[in-house]
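Tutorial, part two.
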Amino acid sequence: MLNKKAIFSDGTSNYLMPCEPMEHEEVTVRLRTGLNNADNIYLNTGNESFKMHLSGNDELFSYYDTTLSLANEQVDYYFEISDGTEILFYNREGVVEEINPNYNFLITPGFKTPDWAKGAIFYQIYVDRFYNGDKSNDVLDMEYFYIGDGTSQVTDWDKYPDAIGYREFYGGDLEGVRQKLDYLEELGVEVIYLNPIFVSPSNHKYDTQDYDYVDPHFGVIVEAGGDVLRDDARSNREATKYIKRVTDKNNLEASNELFIKLVEEIHERGMKVILDGVFNHCGSFNKWLDREGIYEESGDYESGAYSDKNSPYQSFFDFSEDAWPNNGSYSGWWGHDTLPKLNYEGSKKLYNYILDIAAKWVSEPFNCDGWRLDVAADLGLSDEFNHMFWKDFRKAVKDANPDALILAEHYGDPGSWLQGDEWDSVMNYDAFMEPLTWFLTGVEKHSDEFRGELLGQSVAFFESMKYHMSKYQTPSLLVAMNELSNHDHSRFLTRTNSRVGRTNTLGPIAAEEDINKGIMRAAVMVQMTWPGAPTIYYGDEAGVCGWTDPDNRRTYPWGNEDLELIKFHKDIISIHKSFEALQTGSILFLLGEPGFISYGRFDDMDKFVVALNRNNYDITVSIPVWEIGITDDEWLVSLMNSYFDGYDLERDSYQVESGRLNITLSPTSAIILKNSNKH
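Running the prediction step on this input gives:
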């Protein structure tokens, strides 16, 4: 009888060689079975079948290879295994009696994601809340009107964000990022992901005002004339200080120069930087629309489409009425008139402009290392057009910088965009953040819902992960942005209290109550041992709590950090970065029980076992570590052990018996173990 648990293959470099083949290249595909356990093995594609041949044995397994000659088209495949008495099939669903082609393995010739991003440690910075390095560029009280009222300069860095904090500015800037690079380097960060930095009236800057320039409030203000709004002001045409700051080319060029120098310093430290691109919509302040009259008042720009039907940018927006001047009939994203939807179908000029922007910021002299794309699936008015645009976007970016990364924000199945000719990968909600959050906290990622039936439900965790990971080809999976928190969802540390709430219902202090750092540490240990790029949302490592937006955008607590939690992050990051298997190796689910999960990460060099007990009581388990190739003459040595009220790096040894690790885990604990020939 075939040993189903011994059968394994995936798209990593041990089972697909090369794992990112080019067009018209030969590729070797490998399958593992139990030792001498199969008679005939075939690799089946859509229209051909290839007999696989024994390439080697080890103590536990036999390995079978076959070679495919690729053309320039995608190949999907699955395996057929027989021992003379039964026939089984294997794809990403696992061992099955009937193939579901949606789970078949895929090879896309020519699809390669940047090696530097595979398993890299990302750090997301919401710039206004990270560190104020230059107080001279701070947004001032009543500097301009934004969504119904004047701006507010927050002088107390530790103040909780208001429940409706549209107009609050804390003063964080790029100089602040530069001053904290030592901290980020010591933490172990390899890639800095900046939330939007281009000219914009908001603290979040997802309503772009000018795609060509860094906002001087984040950069440098060398020309500081004008005045804030008078008490009787009614229009931003009177916001002369703001107009001077954001339209004067001296300020704009100086801010871009500061950014160029920042990127240079980041690169000198061996780190990368990716930008946030908001290309589905812009903002009503945008110079192309100029609803506020800011650019008209400056006198140095062409007329905006809001006031002038003959504006060179009129086609950039979809106006439903011929109602100039002051034409407010343009389409807004989700109906928001502050977020005009860009009219790509109606303007080839806009289409090409944004492609030029895409290439500009990853080229000399800016040299950024990639893009994160906001609401990328919403761009355009049809799926067909959307895919056409992102294909052209990829070409523009990769032509300018072949090693640039393209990550998209996306909820749901991203598969149609991850075919090798559009995005590299996505922010990994479905195949990381959500399943792990449900298992560990029972709370939805906004803290808006509690589902007790998912808390500690290992079967739901593994099945959800398997299903959603199957939508990714391996090159995408290894660079997927694996976050626990970000600027759109509640802080994970708050989710550990398993409470439902928002800052406008329970208040911000409630977000800090009944939190469980043992669960937080366990989550980070999974994050640092799961396929993909572990991404830390600024301050998570320092103990920052918060409900969903805007409370999740609290300031980094300089001087009040949770130093033990920071040390824990440094230690787990060091472990992650020390082993290729934790960055690009295979993953195999080993054992799931109520409140307990265990899985292995492995390559031809190292083998790791991760085990996690979410229960509030001890649990003794027997984990089948033989499934990842660990034999009885090996020991497993702990690299990190986290428990309810702390963690340690003590190297405890565990003997493997009959291919299994028998271990007792304390309540709310997690452990990472590595194979060793010594104990």
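The CA atoms of residues 427 and 481 lie 5 Å apart. In part three we will examine how such features are distributed along the chain.
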